[in-house]
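REQUEST ID: PR-0412
SUBMITTED BY: lab tech R.K.
PRIORITY: routine
TASK: structure prediction, single protein chain
INPUT:
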Amino acid sequence: MTNSTINIFRNNLKYYRKKCGFTQDKLSEISGISSDYLSEIERGKRTPGFKRMDLIAKSLGIEVYQLFKPIE
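STATUS: complete
OUTPUT:
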């Protein structure tokens, strides 16, 4: 993924997480992904594989593509 794609992904993750009213801890609990890992994703320190992206998207009630679509 390019840097701009990663930035869109991490910004969208944070946007949809907050839209759902979730903290990183709550999303961690729902998705089964550690809150430390989610924090690292949002800070651009890690890039998840598709399996984790799918878990995150399902936990947020969205489709994976929405994490890559710029929010206007």
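NOTES: The chain has one domain: 3-67.
REVIEWED BY: pending
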